[in-house]
Each structure stands twice: as structure tokens, then as C-alpha cells.
Automatic annotation (TrEMBL), chain B:
Assembly, per entry: Component of the lipopolysaccharide transport and assembly complex. Interacts with LptA and the LptBFG transporter complex.
Compartment(s) of residence: Cell inner membrane
Keywords: Cell inner membrane, Cell membrane, Membrane, Transmembrane, Transmembrane helix
Designated name of the protein: Lipopolysaccharide export system protein LptC
Species per Swiss-Prot/TrEMBL record: Agaribacter flavus
Membrane topology: Single-pass membrane protein
Record-annotated membrane-spanning stretches: 6-24
UniProt family annotation: Belongs to the LptC family.
Function per UniProt: Involved in the assembly of lipopolysaccharide (LPS). Required for the translocation of LPS from the inner membrane to the outer membrane. Facilitates the transfer of LPS from the inner membrane to the periplasmic protein LptA. Could be a docking site for LptA.
First-listed, main subcellular location of the protein, grouped into a coarse class: membrane
Amino acid sequence: QEADEQSDSEETQHNIATDFQQTIKIRSRNQLLNGKSKTSVLVDEVLILQGSLKITADRVEMNAAAGKGKEVISAIGQAATYQQKLEDGSLVSARASSIKYDVATREISLTGNAQISQNDSTVSADSIAYNMTEQKIIASTDGNSEKTVSTVISVGDFDNSEDKGNEK
Amino acid sequence: MNRVGWSVAFVFSVVLGLYLFIIYDDEQPPSQTDSELSMTPTYEAINLDSKLYDDEGLLSHQVSADKMEHYQQLGFMVFDNPVYTVFLESGEPWRITAEEGTLYGSSRIQLEHNVKIINLNTTEFVKQIQTEYIEINLDQKTLFSDQEVEIFGDNYSVKSIGIQGNLATQQYELKQHVQSQYFPQ
């Protein structure tokens, strides 16, 4: 209980500028830890917190083989969700079938019905890669699907490093 | 002899009988029942240090303890402050310490109070496991606890209620209310 309150209050104090210096806290009902491969599989109601960064999923694979501070967290779920507070207090949020968070590069990759929103802008695609520190979106679609990237952008919300609406 | 005589004789014999019973009762030492016998250790050892080898003659585990009491009839040994060193085929030993240990047979040990399982191989991912109660099978290198357990590594810790694992394969299942923390670099 106490840990929960502390995390919730921590969450409100932090934002994207300070999040990455915080401890990554992961809560789950069950966990399989493999000391040889340095991996963990966390199952059932998985919640990942790092300051204001919050990822929820049914199942998370944590790979720490690359070493300290280079963990890769793969969150899989009916709809894995991501949310983080920006410096101006607004929220960026996303959902997808799977969300991969690369701790070292501070990038999340959304795959499968991916959608990311901030203020009034929403980007939907099959897969989206988003750099959290630079708030840069690399939107892309799966090669063999007709679906194009649908991007609704208000000026200045997202800095999209690719031309809007191009097809892959 | 008339009625008065008989009653005096009767009272006299009761008093005599009581007197003899009291004396007789003091002299005979109380006989220890079987259960009391089994509650006293068959033998004790102080500053114990012993090594156990497996069928192939390889060192399986080593134990030292301030004191050990062996209860032959009950089939267990009790250790004060045991220090177990468990050796694996790959040679990485684990050191296990606790305030109390009870060994059943030759390989099943229950450890209680301030239990620490330390990986002596410093490059390993899982460095230490801590709990107040754990049961270890020294032959199969498996461990089990239904109490709060904490696992530590270089930059992380995992807390859970209950664990089931294997020190040789290094696979651990953490059962409930699992809270992991990965510290920033």
C-alpha cells in the first residue's frame, strides 16, 4: 500500500525531463526470472512505472542481457498502453498490441494497431516508433497492408521526422 | 478382638501403607518414556565442519555450524547458525547462511531466520536471495518458500511472496505480488 502511494505521488512530481533518472518499478502477479539468460517474464496485471512514464500490459518480457541500463522491456497485451507527462504538463499516450521500451535509447516501438496521441493529435499506423526525449515519431505501416499512416496533426504537437502521409 | 480394636488396626495399616508408598516412591528414579528419549539428541557436535560427496565422488555440499544436534529417532539434525556451501557441476558455489537449520534425511534442509543465499560467482545476474524461511533440496539444488523473498542483482531487486527455483538452472518462479525495481545508471 505504502509503495503504491509513493509511486502515485512520485508519478505526479515527475515528467519526461526527469523520468529517465528514476527507478523502473514493475508490479505483476507472477514472474519467471532466468538468471542464466538474464531475462524475466512477468505475467498478469503488469504495471511499469518510471516517474510519470507508465506502461500496462498482460505480459512483459524484460531482457537485461545487454547489461545495466540497457534493458529492453517488451509489453504484450490485449492492448498494451503507454503514457507519460510532458514538461508542459500535457500527456502523451499510446496503445498497441505490443510496446517495446528500449531503456538505453529511450525509444518505444508500438506494433499492431498502433496509436499515439498528444493534445489533439493522433497518429495511427501498424507500427510507430517514438523517441521519448526528442518526442519524435517515425510512423510506418506494415509492407503488405494497404493501410496508410493516418496522421492528424496540430501544428507543433508532434515533430514528425518523416513526410506526413507517405506510404511504405 | 472387638469393633474398636479392628478400627484401630485398620487405621494403623492405612497409615503404614501411605508411609511405605511415599518412601518407595522417592527411591525409584522416574523411567524415561520413549517420546522423552527421542526428544534428547542422540549426539551433539560443536563447531561442526563436514563435507558431503555425491555418487560420482564430487563435492556436493559442505556445512559448518556453531552447534549441531542429531535426533536419530526423529530422523533430523538441528543446526545453530549453519553455513552451507552448495557446489554445482559448473563449479559455481552458492553460500547459504541462516540462524537455524533443520536437515531431514541427507538432503532436505529447512532454513529459518535471516536466510541469505549468496552467489559466490560475482559475474552472475542473480547475486543474492533473502528470506525468513526457505526449504532447499541439496541434491536437486531446488528451493521453495511461501514467505516473503527478495532477490538482488547488480542494479535490480525483486520482491515476492513465495518462490520456487533451482540454483543449478537459475530459474526462479516468483509467485505473488511481485515488485521488481531496476535502478537507473
